[in-house]
Design goal:
Shape: globular
Oligomer: single chain
Distance between the termini: 55 Å
Number of domains: 1
Structural class: mainly alpha
Largest sheet: 2 strands, parallel
Number of strands: 4
Strand content: 5-15%
Length: 138
């Protein structure tokens, strides 16, 4: 491979990184309704911020060295805008956090491919419209 080929490949990767973000989450702005750690967890999860989601799961006081156990306990304890975190992340197409949570969820909470229904909410709103969603937890 010559330097020009490597440079072209790098430009393609860089260009697609700006084009391919989650289409639905780009139309939503998620705002925390309060300053609780669980609300921050909900906002991180629905914003598709996997690193912050993991940090807030540890921050809600789930004491376990096993990540799967931490996620299971968090999914049992936290609801986001009246939904469990898996449903919430699936509804707003937060694929990274959804996949992380779903792989570690108990059978009770796990969402299977046949249960997933994708609704393109972005097509239902004007393309230049930003929808602000206030997120709270219980």
């Amino acid at each position: 491979m010559n330097k020009l080929t490597i440079l072209k490949a790098g430009v393609v990767v860089l260009a697609t990184s700006f084009i391919t973000p989650n289409a639905i989450s780009a139309d939503y702005q998620f705002i925390a309704g309060d300053k609780s750690v669980t609300t921050k967890l909900c906002v991180a999860a629905v914003s598709n911020n996997l690193m912050a989601t993991k940090r807030y799961i540890r921050g809600i006081g789930v004491q376990s060295f096993d990540q799967s156990a931490q996620v299971k306990l968090a999914l049992n304890a936290v609801t986001c805008n009246g939904q469990n975190m898996l449903e919430f992340t699936a509804n707003y197409n937060a694929d990274k956090t959804f996949n992380y949570l779903n792989k570690r969820a108990s059978k009770k909470h796990r969402i299977h491919d046949k249960d997933v229904r994708i609704i393109d909410i972005a097509k239902q709103s004007k393309s230049d419209e930003v929808i602000v969603l206030v997120v709270t937890s219980r």
